[in-house]
Amino acid sequence: MAGPLPENNLKNPDSDRYGQELYQLMVALYPICRSITGDGFRQTLRQLQAVVPLTLHEVPSGTQVFDWTVPQEWNIREAWIKNARGEKIIDFSISNLHVVNYSVPVHRKIRWAELKEHLFTLPDKPDWIPYRTSYYKATWGFCLSHHQQQQLRDEEYEICIDSTLGPGHLTYGEFKIQGTADEEVLISCHSCHPSLCNDNLSGMVVAAKLAQQLSDLPLRYSYRFVWIPGTIGAITWLALNEPGLSRIKHGLVLSCVGDSGRFNYKRSRRGNAEIDRVVEHVLRHAETDFGISDFSPYGYDERQYCSPGIDLPVGCFMRTPNGKYPQYHTSADDLSFVKPEALAGSLDRLLSIVRILEKNRVYLNLNPKCEPQLGRRGLYRLMGGTNGSELEEAILWVLNQSDGANSLLDIAERSRLGFGIVCGAAEALLQSGLLRETA
Amino acid sequence: MAGPLPENNLKNPDSDRYGQELYQLMVALYPICRSITGDGFRQTLRQLQAVVPLTLHEVPSGTQVFDWTVPQEWNIREAWIKNARGEKIIDFSISNLHVVNYSVPVHRKIRWAELKEHLFTLPDKPDWIPYRTSYYKATWGFCLSHHQQQQLRDEEYEICIDSTLGPGHLTYGEFKIQGTADEEVLISCHSCHPSLCNDNLSGMVVAAKLAQQLSDLPLRYSYRFVWIPGTIGAITWLALNEPGLSRIKHGLVLSCVGDSGRFNYKRSRRGNAEIDRVVEHVLRHAETDFGISDFSPYGYDERQYCSPGIDLPVGCFMRTPNGKYPQYHTSADDLSFVKPEALAGSLDRLLSIVRILEKNRVYLNLNPKCEPQLGRRGLYRLMGGTNGSELEEAILWVLNQSDGANSLLDIAERSRLGFGIVCGAAEALLQSGLLRETA
Amino acid sequence: MAGPLPENNLKNPDSDRYGQELYQLMVALYPICRSITGDGFRQTLRQLQAVVPLTLHEVPSGTQVFDWTVPQEWNIREAWIKNARGEKIIDFSISNLHVVNYSVPVHRKIRWAELKEHLFTLPDKPDWIPYRTSYYKATWGFCLSHHQQQQLRDEEYEICIDSTLGPGHLTYGEFKIQGTADEEVLISCHSCHPSLCNDNLSGMVVAAKLAQQLSDLPLRYSYRFVWIPGTIGAITWLALNEPGLSRIKHGLVLSCVGDSGRFNYKRSRRGNAEIDRVVEHVLRHAETDFGISDFSPYGYDERQYCSPGIDLPVGCFMRTPNGKYPQYHTSADDLSFVKPEALAGSLDRLLSIVRILEKNRVYLNLNPKCEPQLGRRGLYRLMGGTNGSELEEAILWVLNQSDGANSLLDIAERSRLGFGIVCGAAEALLQSGLLRETA
To answer: Fewer Cβ in 10 A, N or C end of chain C?
Structure first.
C-alpha cells in the first residue's frame, strides 16, 4: 500500500479537515430516530451514501437467522404526553429518546398511577433522559428526565405513541473494497441507536470515512464494511453470509470512538490474533496512555463474531467503553460529548492499523550465513562510529529474524522498534536483493 | 452432587456444630500414644470407627514394600526416670512425648554423664517437651523440657522404658465411598504421631468427618480415605495397592488443619493438575489471605505420592505448614493450639473442593453460531438496561467458551467468576437445552 | 571434571595471583597497534603463545568468505602531523589511536581547511583521543583530543602516514583442547583493536588464561578458543570451518571483562539455550547484582554466530557492555580502567560456567516408586529432627526429578538450590547405586 497512509507516530496532515467532516456528518445524522429496523435506519444509510456508495440490504421480518427471527419493522411518527390542561409535557419531536424504542402504539387517557409504571428516569442524573428499548416484549413507555417527572402531578393524562409494528424488513448497509487478495478485513458498527452520538454515530461516521479513504488506495486485502443493527443485525448478517466468513482474516467492531477519552481495545476471543497484536502495537507506539482488555462475551457485536461456532478474529476498537462514561445511553451522549479531533484521531489510528495489516509479511533473508556486507550496498555508515541509526538497527533485526518464521510484526515486537521503521528496513533490503517474500 | 454441599463463599450453617464435634473427637484421641506401629495406632482407628466405618489393615513386620521393609511393632507400657531419692522426675504417663518414639527397652541405674546423652530438650523453648523418634536406629531416649533438665543434678538415676519391639504389624485404616464412577479421589493423612494436635490429629479427624459427610451424598467420583503412618505407611499402602493407583484422579494429603493460621496449599508435582487448580480457586474465592507453594520433595506423604514412579496428582492441604509454627513437634502443639472453628473451616473448604471436583465437566454449546436468544427462554432481562446480572454474565461466558475444549473451571478462571455461579449458569443452560455434556 | 574448578560461590584461592598475571599480560600487549589484519595482530598472538600454545592461521587477502572478501593487509610504521615550524604535534608513536585504523598512506603539505576534515575529536570528552576505523572506504585520518585540536591554527601542516595496504593475510589464533567428547564449547574474542584495554585486551587475556587452566583438567567437552578480528574475522572463521559447526554445543563471546562494573550477559538468539541458563545460574548464585539482556543483532561477534543461517547457541559475556561506559572506544580505555581483581573475577565466573557445562547431565532414579530408604545408605540423619540439611534437600530433589526428563540444571532451577549442591547430591546417589546417567 502506498504512501498516503500515515506513519504510526505522525499526525495525519488532513486530520483537522477530516475531524470537521466527520463531525458535520454526525450533526446531520443526529436528529434521526434509528432503531433496529425502520425508516430511520434506512434514511441514515442513504445519507452515508454521500460519503461511500454502500448498498442497502433488506431482510424480511420473520426470516430465521440461526436461533433468532428477524422481528417486525417498527416506525414512529409522533409521541407525546399531555397533561390535564392539554399541554404537551413530553414530546418525541423534541428528543427521540423520549419514547421507549419499539413501543407499541397507544392513544388514550390514563391515570397517573398507571402512567408512572411506564415512565423511566435516572434519579441520580436528574437532567438526563435515559435510552430504553423493548424489542422482544410488546409494551410501551416514555423516558424523561427525573426533573421532568418530579413536576408531574397525580392527575389524568393523555398519551399518544403513533407507532407501527408489523411485517417489513431489517435493513443493513454494506460496502466492499476489492483488494488484490480475496482475504478480507471486516469493519462492523452497530447503527441502531437514536440520538446518541458516541454510541454509536461516532463508529458509523468513522467507518464511512475509513471506507472512503481506503477506496482510493491500492490494497492487498479486501475490506468489507457493515452498518448493522446491534445483535440481531450481526446475527442476521452472519447467518446470511456464512459461506464467505472463512475469507475474513481480521476484523474490528467500531464503537464509542468520538469521546475525548483514551483508546481502549478489547481483544478478540482468540486473544493473540494478528489484529489484536496490530492494534496493540499501534496504540503502544502512538499513545502515552491506552487500555487493553481481554475478550469477554458482553459488549458489542464481537459477542456474535466471537461466538464459538463463528470465532472470527474480531476485536473491538473504542475510546471510552460502553458503560464506562456517565453519559452512556442517556441524552447527554450528545453533540457536545464528541469532538472532531477525537473522531479524526480514531480515524488516524485505524489507518495505521490498516497500514500494518497491509504490510505485515514474512520475508526470507537470502544471505543467512553471517551478516551481509551492508556497506557496499549503501546500507551502512562507512566510517565506523559508535552508534548506528535506528534504521540500521532495524536492518540488522530484519536480517537476523527473517528465517521464514517471523513476520515484520514479530520482528517489531521482539526488537521493540516501531513497525514503520522495521517495514522501511525490509523495503531497503528487498531493493538490495537481500530479502524475498515467502510464498 | 446435591445441595448439601456449601457454596464456596457461604459459611456452612452446620459449621459450629461440626467444629465442636471435630474438637471433641480430638480431645478423645489426644492422650493415646501413637507411633508408626502398635496398639496406640489401632486404638485410634477404632475410635474413629465411631465416625466412619473404616477398615483396619494389618501388614506383617518384615514385608518388603518397594525399597523398604515393614519394621517391627513397637509398644510401650510405662517409662520413667527416678532420681537418687527414688522420686519419679520424668513420667511417660504424664506426657507420652517424654519417651523417644521407638525406644528400645531399658531398666537400670545410670550415671548422669551417660544419661544426659539420652536426654533431648529445646533450650530456646524451655517449657516445651520436644517430639523425637528413632525408627531405624535401635536406641532409647527421653524428651523433657529444658527447665526440667536444668533441675537435674550429677547423681545416679534409675531409668525404665518398658517397651517391646518385635514382630507384629503395621496397621492402617481405609474407607471407600463408591461413587457412580470408578475414578477416585484420595484423601490421606498421617496418623502416627502421639499427643500432637495440629500435626496431625487435626487431619485425622477432619478426614473422618469429611468421609462421614460425603457418605450421605450422591457422588460421581469414588472417594478413598487412608489413615496411615507417615512415610512407611504411605510407602506400604502404595506398594500393596499399586494396581489400583491409575484410578486415582485427584488427591490431597491433609495435615495441620486445626490451627488458626491462613490456609496454605502445596501443589502436586505436576503443578497444574486439576486438584491444584480447584484448591486455588476455592481459596481465592473464599479467603482474603492464603498461601500457595510449589511442590517440593520434603513435607508429608505427598513425597511418596509424587515420587517420579508414582506421580499422582496429590497436593497437600494445610493451614500453617510443618515447621512454620513454633509449637511444631513439641508439647505445645496441644489442645489449646487448635480451634473448633479452624477445624470446621478446614472441613468447609474441603467440601467446596469436593463440590467443584464433582461438578467440573466440559459442556458443548448446542447453538454455537451467534448467541442464542436468551430472552424467550427466560434467561435474560427483557427490558434492555445497562447492567446484566452476574448470572447473565456467567451464562454468556459458558455459552462462549463451551466449544468442547473448556471445563467449567476453565471458564470460571477465564471469566474470573466463582465456580458456583458458572456452574449455576451451566445448569440453567442445560435445562434450556442449550448445552450438553461432552462424552 | 575434578576438583580444581571452583564452586560457584567460593572465591578461587588463586584469584589474586591470576589477577596479577592477567594484568601483566595486558600491560605487555597494550602498546601494540592491532587492526583487523597486519603484524600487530600476529605479534599479539605470538605473545599469547607464552600462555597457551595457540596456532596462527593465515587467510589470504581476496578470499571469499560468505558475502565478504578478506581485505588487504594493513601495516603502519609511523604517522605524524608537523606544524609550520616543523614540530611534531601529533605522533603515532605516542598513541596508536592517533591514526584512523586502515588509513591509506599519505605524505604531503596540507592546508588547515583540508586537514581539519580528516581530524576526529570528542568535544564532550576533550582530553580523550577517539578510536576510529575505515576498513572499507579508502581514506585517511588522525584522531586527537579536543584540547589538542583547539591549539591548532590556520596554517600549513605536513602530514605523514607511513602505512601499507596491499595483498597479504588476515590472521587469527586458534587453540583446541580435546575432551572425551567431540562436542565443543567455543570461546571467541575479537582481538583487532589497538591500545584499548577493556575492549578487548581483557577478553583476549582472560580467554588465554581460561584455556591454560582448562588444559590441565580432564574434560568431557572439547574446548575451542579463537582470537579473531571482529566481524570479518568471525565471518572468515565461520566460512572456513562451516562443516564443523554442528559440533559446537555452547559458546561465549568474551568482551569487556576487565572493568570494575557488574557482569552483564547477553543471551544467545535462541534465548533459552543451555549456555544462557548456565550463565544466568552462575551469576544469580555468585553475584548480588548483575544484568541479563535479550539477544539483539548489534554488539560483538555474536552477531555472526547468531545469524539465522548459523544460529549457534553463543551468548556474550561482559562486565560493562560496549557503549555503556564513557571510556568506550577512547584513549581512556587504558591500563588504569581495568583491574586485576576484575579480570580474575571474570575468569572465576567462566570456570564456574565450564564446571556446570561439564557436570550438567540427565540422570535416572533407579528406585522411582516412593523414596528409597536413605538412612541405611548413610544418606540421611538417623535420629529424626526438624530440619534436613541442604544436601538432604538436594538429594530429595534429585531423586524426585530424575525421571529422565530433567537435567541437574533443571533440578537446580526448580529447587532454587545451587548447581554445586545438586551436583553433589547426584554424586552421592550415583555412589549409592540409586541413580544412573541416561544414555
So the answer is: C
